[in-house]
Amino acid sequence: MSYEGVGGGFRDEPELLQFATERYVEAEASAVDLETDGLTDLQLCAQYCRECTVSVQRMFHVRSLGRVCADALRVGAEPFPLDLLEDLAQDDDSEVRQSVAEQLGVLTDAIKISRRKQEDDLALGLLNVAFLLVEDDSDGVVAAAEDATATVATLCTTGEERAFLISRVEQLCRCEEEEIRISGSKIAGELAEVLGAETTASTLAPLLTELSEDDALQVREATVRATVRAGETMRGTDAVIQLFDIFSSLANDPVWSVRKACADSLVGLSKSVGQDAFAAFAQELFETLANDVSLQVRTGMLENLGPLIAELGRERTSESLVDHFVSMAESTGGSASGLQLSCAFAMPGVALTLGRERWAEIRGAYDMLAHSVHWKVRRSLACSLHEMARILGSELAEADLVPVFQEMLGDADEVSIGVVNNLAAFMREIPPTVRLDHLHVLARIATPKSDVTIGNWRLRAAMTEQLGDLSKILPASANEEMTIPLALRLLKDPASAVREACIAVIGSVLQNSSDGSSSAWRSGQIGRAMSTIKLMATNQHWADRQAYVRICGAFAGSINDNVLIEELLPLMLMTVDDNVPNVRSELAKSLANLRTKDIFAELPDVSAAAEALRNDPDQDVSRHCVIADRSKHLEFSTGLRATPVK
């Protein structure tokens, strides 16, 4: 076929396609095809990394280098492309250099699992690449290289290699450029685990001492975190006292940001020594930082008080520390919101650490937080209310938490949803009689503000999801009086998300409310609920008929199979002739779910309905049947192995 060309003349289809490509695609954006004959994947990748002139295409191969190299080394037939990495590490494009830095860990792992011995100087060569990238001008390259250097250092097994590693770290830490000394401090902390306790004590600890006296405050800040990491490696050794001296000197630094770094890192020192030694050191240092002249330092130390108490344990937590924790709830001013939020977030952990015996010491703080003017503080407590009830036990929960529970349910939606999301878990922890006294709140939450507005459907959906678990802990009489009518009402909710949530749980609600006998499904509140559900199958509105089919599908596994077959299945199969394709499509999905169980798959009526749907004139309906049939035998590939679809 030919077409009239631009400016006269005719072009056939291939020429027209080429013309369109040349007209609208820039030359440098076109893919470059290099010679590939006889090249391995690694050689091909290296060729594109070096010679490709299209940046996007080249970056694709650069980012694939680690995976391709790992595959090649696994076979063991090719040498490690160290020269290529050295070239790419000095590339003009910072994205290329950053990609190389990000893949150093993958390349290191590839070397470790390779089946053949690589060159003797490979570890040193890869370390040189890492340190070269650490001194890069791009922040992204430097950050990636800092993270990868410790991984590359695990290749150093000989004394010569480890000596080279230490000498390079010392060069970084003593460099004239502040940014490089910062990188050296970070790497020194990460290398402690690789080098071991003895080398850390003899080499890295003196280096950290030098850095703690550096003129640049950012170097000293980095040294705080490096000291904590080194302490983890030196745990149990006498030399760990060196690191505590370093940390103490930094905690008294003249610059507030360095002291704040100490406040943020104090808890991490617990991994360096035993609990008794840490408790003595931490409590003394805490008082210093919590009473610092800088508001930022005081705030930072108090914000980390919760984790500190959890680390110290009940026996080692002094009354003074608890008083400081309570003061966070009492705080006012500009920092009040942050301190109260940190206090509320840490409250369950502190309560668990102190135990029920010391609950009285922080009960006042909890009450103040529950009445905070900041809704985020109250929401934090609402989300952890069920955990607090579990920690305190039913007696204390009834006395101190139930009033808070009542207030939060009437609070702003952002707060009350935190309680509703864990409603069943909270109810489980309070005495059974108290549960019954508060069931009325369910109806209040489930009722929209009007029949014509959806209102806060998320709150109702969250409450609906709790009905299944609630029905397990409530007596049958309470379920019949409150839970079942509520579920039936939610099936008619104006928000589809609420209706979907109710369809998923109503089977569990009915099953948990029955006594196990088949007669229970035909009488009483359960029988009336079943009648209401059955009426949906013949409702004039197609959405109700669709919902009925979906309920039947969801009932599989939730209620007794015989009840489903005798009471609900006949009406469900009648929808095979429904005039709305959406209803038949839903029937195809539900039948596919039911037929996974032999008791349903062997029923002639179910097989006949499935066959009718398979030949349905509507393509969407028949497609669901075909997919369901194929899923029993279909395999999909992950790229590694064939896996049957379940």
State the gist of this model.
The protein is mainly α and 646 residues long.
* Beta-strand segment tally: 4
Proportion of residues in helical segments: over 70%
- Mean pLDDT score, rounded? 87
* N→C terminal distance: 48 Å
Explain how this protein is built.
The chain is mostly helical and 646 residues long. It starts with a strand and ends with a strand. The chain is built from 37 helices and four strands. The protein is flat and about 85 Å long. 40% of the residues are buried. The strands form two sheets. Strands 1-2 form a two-stranded antiparallel sheet. Strands 3-4 form a two-stranded antiparallel sheet.
Summary keywords:
single chain, 646 residues, mainly alpha, two-stranded antiparallel ribbon, 70% helix, 2% strand, flat, disordered N terminus, disordered C terminus
Describe the SSE topology:
Elements: E1 2-4, E2 10-12, H1 13-24, H2 41-51, H3 55-75, H4 82-88, H5 94-102, H6 104-113, H7 122-134, H8 139-153, H9 159-173, H10 178-195, H11 197-212, H12 217-233, H13 240-251, H14 256-265, H15 275-290, H16 295-303, H17 305-312, H18 319-330, H19 336-354, H20 359-370, H21 375-383, H22 385-409, H23 413-420, H24 423-429, H25 432-437, H26 440-446, H27 457-465, H28 467-473, H29 476-490, H30 496-513, H31 524-535, H32 542-555, H33 561-574, H34 581-594, H35 598-601, H36 604-614, H37 619-630, E3 635-637, E4 642-644
Antiparallel strand pairs: 1-2, 3-4
Helix pairs in contact: 2-3, 3-5, 3-6, 5-8, 7-8, 7-9, 8-10, 9-10, 10-11, 10-12, 11-12, 11-13, 12-13, 12-14, 14-16, 17-19, 18-19, 18-20, 19-20, 19-21, 19-22, 20-22, 21-22, 21-23, 22-23, 22-24, 23-27, 24-28, 26-29, 27-30, 28-30, 29-30, 29-31, 30-32, 32-33, 32-34, 34-36, 34-37, 36-37
